[in-house]
Amino acid sequence: MLWTGCSRLKPVDTSPLESSGMSYAAVQRLDALKISSVEVGEIAKAHQSGFADADCVALVEIYRGRNRPFDAGDAVAGLAQAGMSDTDILELARIDQLGLGWGELQAMKLAGISDAIVMEEARQRARGKSVLSGATLAQLKNTGVRQSTLLQLVQRAVPESQGRAILAYRHRGASEAEILRHFGGS
Predict the structure, then answer these.
(1) Hey, which end of the chain has fewer CB within 10 Å, N or C?
(2) Extents of the domains making up the chain
(3) What confidence tens digit (pLDDT) does each residue in 18-37 have?
(4) What is the rounded distance in angstroms from the CA atom of residue 89 to the CA atom of residue 79?
(5) Phi-psi region of 145 (alpha: psi -120 to 50; beta: other; left: phi over 0)
């Protein structure tokens, strides 16, 4: 038979998903989303890190809603391995924060910064706000600043440009209340 102007598309090999332990139903749902071979590898990374079947499907649906391929397998795996919940990772995907900055979010989590602070940091960034960096927050935490105070600083969108001043103020003996009064944010 002669084919003119058309070629047959091979089905995408989903065996890496099946090998990762993903359910048949989840693989079928992903297949219905017309995942590519590259996406199969990204989804497998997420799933192998402990990300649930339904949540893997939800991630791809979020990316499809933006007309983008799912390319955040490393981000999902890294955040999951750092102890972030599936729910929070899905929220990060919804607010489009699984891109280049995910490594800092992972580092914050590994430094013992609470999930609430990590998520607020991501929300502020999604709004285009400059906020204290994960490194500055970790340094403040190491000086004894409580998580609730760190959260308030992030909620107030105190910019990183004030980070050194806050640290210096703390090293001079400023209380958390004084820090909050003095650094109101943008």
Answers:
(1) N
(2) 12-110, 112-186
(3) 999 999 999 999 999 999 99
(4) 7
(5) beta
